[in-house]
Amino acid sequence: MISIDLRGWKRAFLFLLPYLIGLFVFILGPFLASFIISFEKWDLFTPPSFVGFLNYTRLIHDPLFWKSLLNTFYFAFTAVPGGIAIALFFAILMNNNLRGIKFFRALYFMPVFTPMIAVAMVWNWLYEPQYGLINTLLSYIGINGPDWLGSEKWAMLSIVIMSIWKGFGYSMIIYLAALQDIPQAYYEVADIEGATPIQKFTHVTFPLLTPITFFLVVMNIITSMQVFDQMYVMTRGGPNDATLTVVYYLYKNGFVYFKMGYASSIAWALFFITFIFTLIQLKLQKKWVLTNERT
Amino acid sequence: MKKFSIIFLISVFLFTFVSVTYAKTIEMSMWGTPQEEAVYKEITKAFEAKYPDIKVKVSVLSWTDYWSKLQTRLASGSAPDVFAVNGGWLQVFASKNVVKDITSYVEKDNALVSDLFPMAIETFKYKGKIYGLPRDFNTYVVFYNKDLFDKYGVSYPKSNWSWDDYLATAKALTKDVNGDGRLDTWGVVVDTRPDVWMPFVWQNGGDVLNAEKTKSVINSKEAEGAFQFLADLILKYKVSPTLSQQQVFGWNPFGSGKIGMYITGKWMVPIYKGTKFKWDVQVLPKGKKQIAIANSVGFVIYKNTKSSKEAFEYVKFIATEGQKYLLKLGSSVPCSRTAVFSKDFLDPSQPPANKRAFVQEISYSKILPFHPKWNELWEVWTKYPELMFNGKIGIKEGLLKMDKDMNKILSEK
Fold it and tell me: Among A113, A222, B189, B304, which is least packed, fewest CB within 10 Å?
């Protein structure tokens, strides 16, 4: 017989109450509300009306939705691997005790906490086709740089590059912590076995980092699927919807066209797609991620 | 003595309490700059002096704050009694039944109707009923950089100039001064602003929507001619910076001093006052027809206001007697005849010198075809001109797609 100390539960509940209220009011409540709204037609000013699955069927037949989904995939599946690879590279570089290394660690982390608006505006200038720094530097080595943000071909890639620059510091710091957790003993054994630096990386470092890599890939893909800020500031979804992402399309439908119902259905569609991706990754985890049971 | 002072204090308190509660207080909200806030507070003071038992609480917010706050308040059912809108938002709000129909108030008031410019009132009509009153009637003109004209020996635009004159002048002002292969000054700026390309379409005999605003009529030879002319300015004659080059200038290309002529409205005057070069204005060049464009901003009354009479008096005051205070800002063209022909508006000491250009255009200005779905329409009106002016699609194809997209939006229930 387990006796439950009811007074203890009441006290625990009271302590949790502020957080629970926040959770319900700001997260679970809106969650439920947006789910209900996705089955309604609502323009914010007049009362909503129930329309069943109309929004979802519209979504399936909406070419702009599929384009935005493709654009979002392009972003997620270039920015995430690119960002993580660069973060790992720099983390390895930063993983030493040279004098002043802390300065460089902070330096590479700085873009992370610089406001996106400021970064986007400066990169707008960098990318300017005629007078921007990037094309000017390219012209010195004889390359005629493209219209980075103004051409359908390059716009999304340009945003990807800027996003990688801005975000890699975060993953770098996490990798740095993970690197420092790797026992030196493994490297000493590798040295004894006569391993080259590359072999040390592929046989010691990378395998031991797979759990962290998995975490970073999953988290970064989830946030990348929701990318919005950069597109809003730098290209407004253009040119010709080349950088229209799902969340940007959702924003337009909800707050520019006042189609709250349709916007909510887009949000839930995104949720399910992201959910499926995460499930797939969890299933694939066994194939490549090292855990304590599997070394 | 003590008893007396207590009674005195209580009666003073009661008096102010009573007079404040018996004075009707209405709330007005708008977007604007600090200078505009100061002027509207002056107008309000004058209004309160004329109507001592009405008090007005004025709140002026930045553009983005204003709209997001207004939407939230309208959605929650407690909006300001009087709030500012432009033509597009008026259509949205009127169609959603959140603003008051003031047709009966206005039609009863003959003096008001004869003083306001008809096109200014037109902006605030939805399905034939009036839902607001204007506070200005900004006609668009060509601002030109006199120093640049003088430097290249180009004569200033005349009021009867044509599209050919516009092109010739632009060519004469587009120069690569230091010979580095890059243009340093341009004659004009061609961009995607619908309020700037539309007068060209109208002048060439075309239009955007039919009279009932149910179908698009943009796919016409006349519209094609207009868009071709504008696209040629950028792509063929290269007298305008390309759309991506324009990014360098930010929101104020004319202020850079590198542009010869720029089409916009009088609200830019306070900003251009600070330029290092001399400038003036001229009416838009004439195409097959002489048509200009005007944009009117004004005030509406919240549907669920508890003080509709007071709110109407306030809105009417701004449109008439309040206009003279707005002249101080110098940033708009008044919507009332008395104000436009007053000494204060035509004051020669205030730039621009050729203010009559604004007035001349009033008689032949049209307004944008606002519609409840104008947010979506506006996107179409900028998306395809962007492609056309970048040379990504041909004019015929661009207009075809514009037509298709517009009809899709208009037919959606």
Answer: A113
